[in-house]
Amino acid sequence: MSRAVVFGGAYAIAFFSFLFGPLIIMVITAFNSSKFPRVVPWECFTTGWFAELFGNQRLMDGLLNSVIIGVGVVALAVPIGLAGALALSELPSKLRATLYTVLILPILIPGVVLGISTIVLWGQISRGLGGAVQAGIYNGYFLTIVGQITFVSAYAMLVFIARLQRFDATQTEAALDLGATPGQAFRKILLPFMAPAIGSAAFITLLASFENYNTTVFTVLSESTFTTALASKVRHGTDPSLSALAVIIITITLVGALTNEAVQRRKEAELGGKASRSPLYANPVTRALTHPGVVFAILVAIVATVSYIGSKHDSSVCEAAILQDKLDRQAELRAAQKAKIEAQETEQGITVPKPEGGFGGAFGGLGGAAPTPAAPKPEGGFGGAFGGIAPPAPSE
Amino acid sequence: MKHLTQAYRALANRHGLGAALFVAIAVTLWVVVFITLPQLSMLDYSFRFNLPADQIGTDADHYTLSNFHSFFFNADGSLNTLDLVILGRTLLAAAIVTLIDVLICYPIAYILAHGAKGVAARLMVIGLILPYWINEILRAFAFRVLFGATGVVNTVGMQMGLWDVPVDFIRADVALYFGLSYAYILLMIFPMYNAIEALDHTQVEAARDMGAPLWRVHWRVVLPIAKPGIVSGATMVFMLTAGALAAPQILGGPSNLWFTQVIYQWFNESSNWPRGSAYAVVLLLTCISFVLLMMRVFKVSVGEIGK
Amino acid sequence: MPETSPVNSPDRSVLLDHVSIRFGNFTAVDNANLKINSGEFFSFLGPSGCGKTTLLRCISGFSDPTEGRVLIGAKDMKGVGPNKRPTALIFQHLALFPLMSVADNIAFPLEVRGVSKKERRRKAEELLDMIALPGIGDKKVSELSGGQKQRVAIARALAVQPDILLLDEPLSALDLKLRQHMRTELRAIQQQVGVTFIYITHDQGEALTMSDRVAVMSKGVIEQVGAPDQIYNRPRSSFVASFVGENNALKGVVKRQSEDMAALETPMGTFEARVGGGRKYKPGDEALLFVRPEQLVPGQAENAFQATLSRQEFEGATNHVFARAGDTELRVSMVNAGLAGSVGSKGDTLSLGFAPMNATILPVGQIASEA
């Protein structure tokens, strides 16, 4: 092996450790009973955080909202993206470049800006219309759908452009020549060709809608989507139920990825002709076992079994023991700290540092584990930064 | 306009009147209603006063530069260093994150395009995509877990005796830099990979054969091919990082604000939309000018982005 | 099968009435003016870029002529879209629909005309029988061989009984053996269905073997229209003479002309030959004399001259001999006389000659370069 190969391999391993390390650690923390997500010290193996997650009403409401918004976005962004791709395919090159730039811009514009501009525009429009229309327009669902479409359509468009580039335009010409009307050629030749891209565009737009935070946090107004609910939960103190959520998402992703791999392999085996078919495909038993549907069913069964066993796990005894242990240590520490502070006060006459606000709050409640802050905190949260900003100028 | 009607007619001839009408309506809606009007409306708003609802439309409701003025200057006429510094620092940080991503992604993009074969290449692609199925918020959260005061890094570091008081990685923005660099790796690797893949591998072998050292092969042969991909990826990473909101909110130190957070504050906490709009306009213009400048410098067109 | 009743046969002619097609400043087709007869196998032959495909797309309705008219069956086709014309086009790469089965491909023209599913299936099977590929209707297009795809494309084009079948170099993607086989087959199908075939090709072998008549095109201009043997034996321009088949061109000055014979003075001597294209020359006019390699005969008394054998290319039945006379290298084709005969070896002097009727004098013009 050459030095370059060794170096490249080592680099790849380091790189993928960086990609997966944080996720793996997060997954582990989902099963530690410690109230702050961490790996060490390990307290008790627990599945309680999953129950906690499903019990979070705000997240569950957000999930429903996300689904409603996601469906709306997919229904509009996919056709709009397709229209964009088709328009680009017919324009002369100079105009095409201009339109491409305009349509791709929403991906680059900061999501915050998109969100703001959406609520500002529709706020004005709805004020102008008033009444029932105002209520119909100026609500979190409508605004979020409209705001997300702006850039999500561009994702769909990129998928369609890639597919359209592989379309042989003589196919449409052949259909026309054989007597099809342009509309028939579009429906019977181009659309079926685009079908797989429509599927993946729908998938990508749904995901992008679901995941979006920067735009949605503005447009959703007083409602919340799954992602904004998640963000506000993370900002206001973390607990391992979020890790539990990560475990669920990662599991779904892995099942999806493995099923997809099975589908791809099957396709290759079927396309490749007899010679290239693997022994797995030749043997009827293994062929049935590697069928995408079977692979999916097996994976789902495994996940279901593990979830069922997990739901029966009871860690309360262990947790009670840990809690008792903690309380004991806390009492000890408190006594020690008190003694220390008294000693300090008598020495220097300084007051105790203020308890942490804002981010620190997450650590504050943990008792013994909480560190003594290294520096005095500002008044809490982000407020400090705004101290110097003058109130808006009144109109003269 | 002539070209537009021509394109419309070409569409109608090729795909039918229905399809042409659909394309025309959908694209117009997208460009005008979803892209242009909101930006214009925001621009308009940024020149207005923050008035209570009953005063809108009255004489008091006229255009003003005050929102922009107070971005640059304080009430006493001195420079508003607070906001200016935040903007500057946001752009600088975004540039640093972009640079970090270019550096760490280039080798992987190259290995993926020309080193890895078969199963290894497949696994790498899946491995690159998998983390991005997980919600952006959760990815940031993972770095909170990693770098928190009682996080894995601190616990391990202290147990190994490297330091004995928990290091506040959040306040030092270490977590933020890690989180942001992590967040958009995929957007950097794929354009790069697409560009490098177009390179005929025999060129690399030929250069090596002629005795060029590895770094020179990359500098002279691979990089020129990769350049459009790098610029495309870098543009996306820079814009998304500068416009990031979730990661700074979750991972940012309480005293180091991201410019988007300032905008967020004006909207959601101070309820001063005109001021927030003005700041959004500032962010938009700065980012776009910065990107256009970079494209000029590296001689790459916007059309390369997204490919 | 389209019923071709001889009593009431439809008008399947195509008339190109002073057709010009321009793209901006570029003239793709310049004043094409000809009639293709009902039931004819007609070929457009020319090098790539000569405008033949543009002309074909104009006949099939994908573009309109800038000037002039296209008439099919004596009806002006202006404003009639490709889907409304009685033409069917076989594309260069066939353009079979990969997402449909073979039968669905063939029945597609019927499907878009609202023919019932059952009837479509019946018709598809009938056409598959005609192209001698019964029972492959449920296969995918990707499972077919090159020749099978070719035949399926023809069946699809014939499904709606077009009056005119347009073929855009459909054999170019096939290998040599299959190509030769398909020539015969195409010709047979054409005679069976009686449809007018308009065939586009740059391959003169295809054009000459299959066609009733051939139009030779160069740079947008139709240089000559005629039966294959006329094109070959009686070229009317230097381009046709040099593009179709091998030819030796000798430059010279006309000494005298009498009716359709003339004498041309060349550096190799003065030769008598037929005047091509019915032109008139004055003594002293420059002209080209074309004589085909197989018309140069050793020991021929008329138009005799001496040349030195410079090299040979042996190709089985034929021996290509290159002989040098002065500055000119001439190509001479000799039938392989087997072990009994010999053409000589390098440096030998050859006495050659040719019959005046078998050589053509043409005005100096474009010479087709070997692609």
Describe the protein's topology.
The complex is a heterotrimer of chains A (396), B (307) and C (371).
Chain A: H1 3-29, H2 48-54, H3 57-90, H4 93-108, H5 111-129, H6 131-137, H7 140-165, H8 169-177, H9 182-211, H10 216-219, H11 226-235, H12 241-271, H13 273-276, H14 279-282, H15 284-289, H16 292-312, H17 316-348, H18 361-364, H19 383-386
Chain B: H1 2-15, H2 17-46, H3 66-72, H4 81-115, H5 118-129, H6 136-147, H7 152-159, H8 174-183, H9 185-197, H10 201-209, H11 214-242, H12 246-251, H13 259-269, H14 273-298
Helix pairs in contact in B: 1-2, 2-14, 4-8, 4-9, 4-11, 6-8, 9-11, 10-11, 11-14, 13-14
Chain C: E1 14-23, E2 26-36, E3 41-45, H1 52-60, E4 67-72, E5 75-76, E6 87-90, H2 102-111, H3 117-130, H4 146-158, E7 164-168, H5 176-193, E8 196-201, H6 204-210, E9 213-218, E10 221-226, H7 228-233, H8 238-243, E11 248-258, E12 261-266, E13 269-275, E14 286-291, E15 297-298, E16 305-315, E17 318-325, E18 328-335, E19 349-353, E20 359-362
Parallel strand pairs in C: 3-8, 3-9, 6-7, 7-8, 13-20
Antiparallel strand pairs in C: 1-2, 1-4, 4-5, 9-10, 11-12, 11-14, 12-13, 14-20, 15-19, 16-17, 16-19, 17-18
Helix pairs in contact in C: 2-3, 2-4, 3-4
Subcellular location (chain B): Cell membrane
Pfam families (chain B): BPD_transp_1 (PF00528)
Transmembrane segments (chain B): 20-40, 91-113, 141-162, 174-193, 230-251, 278-298
